[in-house]
Amino acid sequence: MNKITYELEKLDRPEYIEDSIKIVKIAFEHGVLLQVSEAEKIWLDYSDSLAAGWINLPKDDNELWLIISEKDEYNL
After folding, report:
1. DSSP assignment of the chain, as one string?
2. pLDDT (tens digit, 9 = 90+) per residue, 3-42?
3. Cβ contacts of residue 35 below 8 Å, gap of 6+?
4. Per-residue pLDDT tens digits for 46-73
5. What ranges do the domains of the chain cover?
6. Hey, which of 10, 20, 21, 44 has its CA 20 to 30 A from 3?
């Protein structure tokens, strides 16, 4: 099994892999390294806090960063 396959198997919602990768990229631009599974968890937690299964990511990257960085438990 290769690393990519292993990472995909760790995802709860692999159908949203592109969203999770976008979160990884935005975090990286702000000096934060995330694994795809960590990014997915952050967004699942955010969506769950709004009683949703998976909320579409905002189009604006700055808005996305504000959402994911405001969670103290992730220390971003």
Report:
1. --HHHHHHHT-S-GGGHHHHHHHHHHHHHTT----HHHHHHHHHHHHHHTT-S-PPPPSSHHHHHHHHHS-GGGT-
2. 666 676 788 888 899 999 999 999 999 999 999 999 999 9
3. 7, 24
4. 999 999 989 999 999 999 999 999 876 6
5. 3-74
6. 44
